[in-house]
Design goal:
Layout lengths: L1 H54 L6 H20 L3 H22 L2 H12 L6 E12 L3 E6 L20 E2 L2 E10 L3 E10 L3 H69 L2 H4 L2 H33 L7 E4 H16 L4 E6 L5 E4 L1 H17 L6 E9 L2 E8 L6 H4 L23 H11 L3 E6 L5 E8 L2
Parallel strand pairs: 7-9
Antiparallel strand pairs: 1-2, 1-5, 3-4, 4-5, 6-8, 9-10, 10-12, 11-12
Helix pairs in contact: 1-4, 1-5, 2-3, 5-7, 8-9, 9-11
């Protein structure tokens, strides 16, 4: 068990490492493609700006210059005439807002870039952002209206000379920057573009590698789950096997011990002279021999049932008469004083069944009802027809079965228990036989139970 746990732990660790590596590779591929995308469009933007400056009469900001030149003369005089600091702050804000509005609304560089990208077969749909870094009003002295400390001051001769590494800010691409200046103002601003469907474009480019990596993670996860489930099933079957061997040993030893003791008893002189004691001991040996033979046959039949299908010898019976005979026989044989009531609504219903196997089915259910009861057994048997089936429900007042055990009670060798202690002895084959016999007749068996409230087993088989 310790070895299995070590193997399981190593397996889980290996799979987690493999999945982590795959996730790391996926993230790396995504980031690499994102950087390549930004670099590609940075270069294309510079290419576009070079074309616009060389071939077109405008850079897209002609209207902006006219409006700002007209406005700045008045704004410059107003700002230089203000002495109150609070009023100056308010006016500076108004001037800055006006410059921001005009630059964003009146520029048509975006139109020029989009047209260029379209002609070259590039993605033409993008969003633009214009960020003012420095704004000054110029007269005899210079008044700074706004300055962004995160951006250095740039001279007009520096235009377009930024290194590529400085031209990508987060998801935005710096296309160019402007340093506009006339007699009244000096304004420095950057022009960014951002592709709204960038993630989709990157996903399209990386779909093959991402798909293979994701598929490998899924396959590894599925294989791990299958392997883990098989390991747990193997562990469960191993425990059931051990439990079965222990119980079988106990069950077989009981009649063997009785036969051994009875045989030694017959060797005693005082017993050999007493015919009544000899007959009683012989009957005991015979009874225990039958019990031992039944246990051995039960074990041998497991292998036969697994190798071949049931070979049923069906005959047509009146199900109500059949059930009454089987129940009465059980009462007189192994009923142990159980109170059994029968309510049938078959009204002469005929059924094709193997009377030997179906008798075993009924006896197993009745025996379990008696065995798994901590008080005098009371069993209600109700029979009725439903569509093309007959249903026989066996309800007892026993100890009940919890939900977890209900999932496995029809499994071979499985026995419900409290913890690891089995209060009631058995081989764990009774309900397994019941299930097999019901299915061999084309039917099924279900259970409904609550701990301490008894159980109801319902057997259904097809009607004629």
């Amino acid at each position: 068990m310790k070895k299995k746990n070590t193997v399981l732990l190593l397996g889980i660790t290996s799979i987690l490492i493999l999945i982590s590596v795959q996730v790391f590779i996926i993230i790396g591929v995504w980031n690499q493609k994102s950087e390549m995308f930004s670099l590609r469009y940075t270069l294309r933007s510079q290419e576009a700006m070079g074309f616009i400056r060389r071939r077109l009469p405008s850079d897209g900001f002609d209207t902006v210059r006219l409006l700002l030149g007209s406005y700045s003369e008045k704004a410059n005089r107003q700002i230089h005439a203000i002495k109150d600091s609070k009023e100056l702050v308010s006016v500076k804000k108004d001037v800055f807002d006006y410059f921001t509005k005009v630059i964003n609304q009146e520029q048509y560089l975006s139109t020029l870039l989009s047209a260029y990208f379209d002609r070259r077969g590039y993605e033409k749909n993008f969003k633009y952002t214009i960020v003012i870094n420095n704004l000054e009003m110029i007269a005899n002295d210079t008044i700074v209206v706004y300055h962004n400390d995160n951006f250095p001051y740039r001279r007009p001769s520096d235009r377009g000379s930024l290194p590529v590494t400085q031209m990508v800010t987060q998801n935005k691409i710096v296309v160019t920057w402007f340093n506009e200046e006339d007699n009244n103002y000096r304004c420095n601003f950057d022009y960014f573009i951002d592709f709204s469907d960038k993630q989709k474009m990157i996903l399209k480019e990386t779909s093959a590698s991402l798909g293979l990596s994701s598929l490998s993670i899924i396959l590894v996860g599925v294989m791990f789950m299958i392997t883990f489930r098989n390991l747990m099933e193997e562990k469960r079957l191993s425990n059931l096997k051990t439990d079965f061997i222990n119980n079988m040993t106990h069950e077989l030893k009981t009649p063997l011990s009785t036969i051994t003791v009875a045989g030694k008893t017959l060797e005693m002189v005082q017993i050999r002279t007493n015919e009544e004691k000899i007959l009683e001991t012989a009957k005991l040996i015979g009874k225990q021999s039958v019990h031992l033979n039944q246990l051995i046959n039960m074990i041998l039949e497991i292998s036969m049932w697994e190798r071949t299908q049931f070979q049923l010898d069906k005959r047509t019976v009146d199900i109500e008469e059949f059930m009454s005979d089987v129940v009465e026989s059980f009462k007189s044989g192994g009923g142990n004083g159980a109170l059994i009531t029968q309510k049938y609504k078959f009204t002469g219903t005929k059924v094709d069944l193997d009377d030997v196997y179906f008798t075993t089915l009924v006896n197993n259910l009745l025996s379990n009802a008696v065995k798994y009861s901590d008080k005098k057994s009371e069993i209600d048997i109700e029979g009725f027809t439903s569509e093309n089936k007959i249903c026989i429900a066996f309800t007892d007042n026993g100890i009940g079965i919890n939900k977890n055990d209900q999932k496995h009670i029809f499994d071979k060798f499985y026995r419900a228990s409290t913890g690891n202690i089995h209060k009631f002895k058995g081989l764990g084959l009774g309900l397994y036989y019941v299930k097999k016999i019901a299915e061999a007749h084309g039917g099924d068996v279900t259970v409904s139970s609550r701990p301490g409230r008894g159980s109801t087993f319902t057997v259904t088989i097809p009607n004629i």
